[in-house]
Amino acid sequence: MAGWIGRSVICVLAALLLASSTIASSDGPFIIANKKAKLTRLKSGSERVSVSIDVYNQGSTTAYDVTLNDGGWTQDIFDIVSGNTSTSWERLDAGALQSHSFELEAKTKTMFYGAPAVITYRVPTKAALQEAYSTPILPLDILADRPPEKKFEWAKKLLVKYGPLISVVSIVVLFVYLVATPSKSSGPKGSKKKR
């Protein structure tokens, strides 16, 4: 009885593995998008958000009429400084990468939770447009009160990172110096014999 149940479980797992590998290797584009945002504080006190979105086609065929739309940036909070929040490409070949970036300037102080970008594309074998989503970004604390950077912060980081190495090297160098240098004598003690 236990052998029969074990064999049936193995058969079911093998069938699921075969089905999943068939679905994964199906002919068609597979779009993956990675969205990144970086805050930069300007000297004027304002803050800029640099957004870049990388769109990959990990599938086995070309995706056509690829459109990227990142409309989650509300005009109440942001002004577009450079670039555009949407773009399109005629095609995205299998294994290809396309990147899009734009820059925004923040108007108000807030915690912003951005939505994923939407990518639509056409597959020649299907009539309907296909849709994919980018990765979401982490919440952005826009125009937050941050303490000013300390002037010697870089020195502290170097000391923390390389401090133990510097101390070990200096101890080894001091030891080699003490062993290699001859000792100074206070006079010719070795030449006189005591009687």
TrEMBL record:
Keywords: Membrane, Signal, Transmembrane, Transmembrane helix. Residues 1-24 form the signal peptide. GO terms for cellular component: endoplasmic reticulum. Pfam families: TRAP_beta. It comes from the Eukaryota. The chain crosses the membrane at residues 162-180. This is Translocon-associated subunit beta. It comes from Olea europaea subsp. europaea.
